[in-house]
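Standup notes
- DV: blocked on the single-chain target, sequence here:
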Amino acid sequence: MRRSPRFWDYRETLARFDSVCHCGRKIAKGERIGYARGGKVQCCECWDRWCAENAEADMLERGSCY
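- DV (later): unblocked, structure below
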């Protein structure tokens, strides 16, 4: 069984071609995206939100205050 990609499986890059995110938003060539091997793509809005959520979770796990 194949696991879904985790945050660290993704890297930020520019889209090489037009595509569609899992949220339904169209991704234009040259747009900043999150990409994981296997063709998993996060549009810039989903990618920014996901990065922020993971940064917050990381701070909470470390016991840091904002």
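- Follow-up: Residues 9-60 form one domain.
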